[in-house]
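Q: Convert this sequence to structure tokens.
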Amino acid sequence: MSLLTNSLNINLPEQPLILAPMEDVTNPPFRTFCKRYGADWLYSEFVSADALVRSVDKSLKKLAIRDEERPVTIQIYGRFIDSMVEAARMVEAVKPDCIDINFGCPVKRVAQKGAGAGMLKNIPLMVEMASQIVKAVNIPVTAKTRIGWDMENIIIDDIAERLQDVGIRALAIHGRTRSQMYTGSANWEPIAKVKANPRIHIPIIGNGDISSPQQAKDAFDKYGVDGIMIGRATIGKPCIFKQIKHYLNSGEILPEISVSEQIGIIKEQIKMTVEWLDEPRGIIHSRRHLAAMFKGLPNFRELRIKMLQSSNINELWDAFAEIEHKYCSY
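A:
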């Protein structure tokens, strides 16, 4: 039985692959697809505690969970303990498998207000917030953070111990500082150091720059983490979980899926997203995934533009038909 299973009381394999929380990406339709293609554990988009407390419709909608997604975690963020505790209780009421606290979002509108990675500048508040949330709910509470605010302040060792001591049941660590945002390379050495700390007994999940089966295996083998969280590499490619899992189990690299298969996957995903939102918003929401697809196809610029400028299902399906006809051998 895996350490994560023991700690969180959710059924996970020994080397679980986890879908990272991503704003405007990890909604129920996309999570469902990632689960279908091998993701073992799914995270929601991050949800503003203040917006939940104010009953903002858009944030309340982010609490939706489908049974086929489980295990699934809802992640919340905020800078005030009272609203975070109230939001955690609201989240618990919809019965996710876990609640996660976002201590890692680096974007300016979040971090510079003191939430997300902004908490890396106020560790006592971070720890007290985690402690109060753990006390307020009866389901496991996890956290996600970064290795520090900047390269001069790599403080993840201290953070991990203090969060563990107040009841955080698992910790996901992104191998960048807040100052790095998403630039440069993720540094997994501090993650490995936390995992090797004899005082740490909670599961440690590694995150950052995993985009291939080989990198995933290396992360497990070299850094000893209890799980791997994959984010941007899943956009437009939910089947990456299947590819990684196959490699971990067999040592073999699956061939890349064909253009026709890619189109089949994205069409079904778009249909589900349109059903979840509506046609205009569903098409707009899907463009991030469309932009990440079909990389490497020669002379693709005009068809890419047509695909991304499609404003309804019929236009998009026409673009896919042209792509499939032109690149049917790929």
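Residues 259-326 form one domain.
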